[in-house]
Write the structure tokens for this entry.
Amino acid sequence: MFVAKPIQKFVLALLGLACFPAMVSAQGVLMNERRAAKAKKNAEKAEEINKIVRAEEEGAIVYNKEWVLGGRLYSDGWGVFYQHGKMKSVTKTNWWSLEFGERKHPKEEKLSTVDGSGSIFGNNLVYGKQNVFLFTKVGFGQQLLLGGKGNKNGVAVSAVYGGGLSLGLLKPYYVDLNDPLDGQMYEVKYKGDNSRTDSLFLDPQNLYGSSGFFKGVNETQVVPGVFGKGGLRFDYGRYNELVSAIQVGVNFEYYFKHMPIMALNEANKFFMNVFVGIEFGRRK
């Protein structure tokens, strides 16, 4: 059975009129839901802004991201680092960092070689040094605000803690020495095999000076390890968008192989030290 086109159009029009109130009602419900969601979002944003305002009035340093460059002086070496932080709440910041530096043995002493007239010759050297111990560390951690600044001239105190992966780099330490048997100059390193070369290496009468930092770079050994640290950070910057801080703390490192630094001294896997660092950067 076929229905004429005018009748089809009439039926469709009637159906449209019948559905129109339901469509209007559904559209109204949808618009009300959107208004409610927007109002809730605005209220949450306003509350967050109020929290930030109250926190700033109480001396908290409020920001989104932070970039820091700095240096650390350890009880057994030094380090330079970059740190990136992201604020998770008014009191908590997550951070990651990259650091490069050197570990030294407490018995290291830099000497100058002199001739019979007392004149200095050759490069300065560290007597008995077997390896230069460098490190690269990638770390993750948190910073927890303990006390706000109170005013622009105050100091904010935070606890800082974290850990990560440490790569120890052992580069042989070469010295220039004069072999008394043939009078020739040689660049040698300490091998620890009780050879005649080791005897010459440890005889200060034969030493001329160090062979230079880059000698032995191609022989560098990479030793993996882990580290952890904790300390206090004192942020004394006058303006919150600029970072000016001092950090003090303790650092622990463990390597999966002994790390010899000085000849005739016990090599360690575990290193514990204290440090003081200075930091500069920006926030936004």
Observations:
- Residues 1-57 form one domain.
- The chain has two helices and 13 strands.
